[in-house]
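Local shape tokens

___
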Amino acid sequence: MPQSEQDTSGNIELLTRIASLYYLDNLTQAEISIRIGLSRIKVVRLLKKARELGIVEIRIHTPAVLRTSLETALIRKFGLQQVLLVADQVSEENQRELTAQVAATQLDRLLQEGDRVAIGMGRNVGAVPYVLGTVTPRKCVFVTAIGGSPLVGQPINSADICRRLAERFGGTSECLYAPAYVESPELRESFLRHEEVQSVLDNARHARLALVGIGDAKNQSAVVKMGCFSEVDMARLRDAGAVGDILGYFFDREGRPIGPGMNERVISVSGDDLRSIPCVIAVVAESEKTAALLGALRAGLLNVLITTVGNARRLLEMDAPATIAV
């Protein structure tokens, strides 16, 4: 008996059945419409609802040959140790999860007994401990590389990411109990004189590995959400040419440092500190961060890049020499 055209979007069983018929049994939307007794328009809407609720996850896999050629091109272009690319996904959540999975696998592969790992902040870095599989315990130390903020969720703060990674690997964590940004250079110097703050930052500077994200210079960036910068501050940075930051170190598209007065407010390891760490792994899932990623690469702030195929293509296009019309 045909099912009525009433709102059935909340019926998980129906959503699952329609999704299975379409994605697994390869029935057309018209065929499903006849079988279920709903209009084709309703079937389309329910398939969309199934994706929104996570009943259906669409993942795209890029051929290894294409990934390898792009990875090689980026390594040669920017002098990187390694590039690992993931296919572009429709869902932002899927994109972050896949990128984090690659980062987790790489961290597990590189991490050695007795290692010290400097940890950044943000959603991409914060996703890594959640997707980490079963690992062999190691006596290692995860160290906070930047202060935090009570205004954002725990998965974003460096100290919380450190603790979760330490638990997963059976290691220990050293957390920086200080804000990421303060109101003045004088207050920053006061924090930096504290013995425990000095010790944690010094340990982060002498890490063998670092795992960081890359921020952009937009009003929706993490530092604005954390209350560290106002939208006026961020607009001033953009006017000066800033496209992004790593650990509060802002740079322009060419990789030059930006933000007089801003670097004197951040409590973190510096750009020069990052360059001295043997292996800095940067994780970037978002397509809108390509300009920030280009600036970070030109600044020499990372040597292992984990990002998307789309970002790789855009990076190579953006860094291509300009042609002069004759």
In short: The chain has two domains: 12-52, 64-318. The chain has a mean pLDDT of 86. The first strand starts at residue 82 and ends at 86. The chain is about 45% helix and 15% strand.
